[in-house]
């Protein structure tokens, strides 16, 4: 029986929607994602249009809106989009369901993209990144969070070592940086979200590759260059 990545991914994320909804506020307000919106504010002017890819239940999208951005959310899961639409009721935030690898954004012209822990859950990360690049204007910015080497969710990709199909396609941060450079995306800035127990004294002064080796997540700020 053939394996349909998109259908299986939608099914699995539909099943996780309730669990995700229970923890998303904590992640964005005080957990692993708390520094992402301030990081975006550092680089992108208020009033800019931002496409939130893999928006989940829309909590992060709503935080973008509260921060003064024109936000749009996209997720592969219908259940997630349903939760997001309810959360953002009476707010000018649009949500729609779609698979990143099947989307065509040519000419959409967003000022920026927020894409947190999404590309490692795609069948073809290179094609997905190309689609993201097509969605932003020239010189547009892409804020992308990638699971680091110490991230627990990376274990979801382990079954592939037994030849089994999985919807998790993990990458190392340095691999993704190379992938971005091959897609005409320049690395502007970044920061690490470190595994619990890792203190600043452990990574201060280290080369970026060694800093990334200690992370739960590395957050990239990339800029589209060329045509």
UniProtKB/TrEMBL annotation:
It holds the Pfam family Methyltransf_11. Residues 51-144 form the Methyltransferase type domain. GO terms for biological process: methylation. Gene3D superfamilies: Vaccinia Virus protein VP39. GO terms for molecular function: S-adenosylmethionine-dependent methyltransferase activity. CDD domains: AdoMet_MTases (cd02440). InterPro entries: Methyltransf_11 (IPR013216), SAM-dependent_MTases_sf (IPR029063). Keywords: Methyltransferase, Transferase. This is SAM-dependent methyltransferase.
């Amino acid at each position: 029986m053939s394996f349909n990545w998109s259908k299986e991914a939608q099914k699995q994320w539909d099943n996780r929607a309730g669990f995700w909804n229970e923890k998303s506020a904590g992640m964005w307000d005080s957990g692993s994602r708390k520094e992402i919106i301030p990081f975006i504010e550092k680089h992108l002017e208020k009033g800019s249009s931002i496409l939130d890819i893999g928006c989940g239940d829309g909590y992060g999208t709503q935080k973008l809106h509260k921060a003064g951005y024109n936000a749009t959310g996209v997720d592969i899961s219908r259940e997630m989009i349903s939760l997001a639409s309810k959360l953002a009721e009476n707010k000018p935030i649009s949500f729609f369901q779609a698979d990143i690898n099947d989307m065509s954004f040519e000419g959409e012209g967003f000022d920026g993209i927020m894409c947190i822990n999404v590309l490692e859950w795609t069948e073809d990360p290179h094609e997905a990144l190309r689609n993201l690049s097509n969605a932003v204007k020239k010189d547009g910015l892409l804020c992308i969070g990638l699971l680091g080497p110490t991230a627990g969710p990376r274990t979801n990709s382990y079954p592939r070592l037994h030849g089994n199909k999985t919807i998790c396609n993990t990458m190392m941060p340095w691999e993704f940086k190379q992938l971005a450079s091959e897609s005409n995306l320049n690395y502007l800035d970044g920061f690490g979200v470190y595994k619990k127990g890792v203190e600043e004294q452990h990574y201060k002064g280290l080369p970026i590759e060694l800093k990334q080796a200690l992370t739960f997540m590395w957050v990239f700020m990339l800029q589209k260059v060329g045509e």
